[in-house]
């Protein structure tokens, strides 16, 4: 990264959202991927969905190879001013929500366990009832 690295404002990065002028924001870094749009295996549709927002999660979810990650250096043009990213579009907000959801996971586990215990109890009850009926009636 150059000493004179450029810092971009989120709204300016969002304006570059066309096939002939395409910038992406990934992990706080800004990439001008215009030259690669036509060569990307996913085509323009993939890029279109990743522009105008923090595309960190989109990029991570795909599972890019180390070669693809290495090529990103070619397209790097600067950093994003984090204070200009709307909170609803921020990767940090996603992480905060994920942590919050992890806290709620224990509540989900308890509910699933209760349903499982109830299902097992009902199965046991009906199985005992069935076996008792077989013993009394012979079938």
UniProtKB/TrEMBL annotation:
InterPro entries: Cyt_B5-like_heme/steroid-bd, Cyt_B5-like_heme/steroid_sf, Cyt_B5_heme-BS, Cytochrome_b5. SUPFAM superfamilies: Cytochrome b5-like heme/steroid binding domain. Gene3D superfamilies: Cytochrome b5-like heme/steroid binding domain. The keyword Heme applies. The chain crosses the membrane at residues 108-126. Its main location: endoplasmic reticulum. SMART domains: Cyt-b5 (SM01117). It is found in: Endoplasmic reticulum membrane; Microsome membrane. Residues 5-81 form the Cytochrome b5 heme-binding domain. Keywords: Endoplasmic reticulum, Heme, Iron, Membrane, Metal-binding, Microsome, Transmembrane, Transmembrane helix. GO terms for cellular component: endoplasmic reticulum membrane. PROSITE patterns: CYTOCHROME_B5_1 (PS00191), CYTOCHROME_B5_2 (PS50255). One of its GO terms (molecular function) is metal ion binding. It comes from the Eukaryota. It is a single-pass membrane protein. Belongs to the cytochrome b5 family. This is Cytochrome b5 heme-binding domain-containing protein. It comes from Deinandra increscens subsp. villosa.
């Amino acid at each position: 990264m150059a000493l004179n690295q450029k810092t971009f404002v989120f709204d300016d990065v969002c304006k570059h959202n066309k096939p002939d002028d395409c910038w992406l924001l990934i992990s706080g870094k800004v990439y001008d991927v215009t030259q690669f749009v036509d060569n990307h295996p996913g085509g323009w549709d993939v890029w279109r969905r990743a522009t105008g927002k923090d595309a960190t999660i989109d990029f991570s979810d795909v599972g890019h190879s180390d070669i693809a990650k290495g090529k990103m250096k070619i397209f790097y043009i600067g950093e994003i001013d984090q204070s200009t990213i709307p909170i609803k579009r921020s990767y940090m907000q996603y992480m905060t929500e994920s942590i919050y959801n992890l806290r709620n996971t224990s509540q989900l586990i308890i509910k699933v366990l209760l349903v499982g215990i109830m299902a097992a109890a009902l199965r046991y009850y009906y199985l005992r009832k069935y076996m008792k009926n077989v013993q009394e009636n012979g079938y």
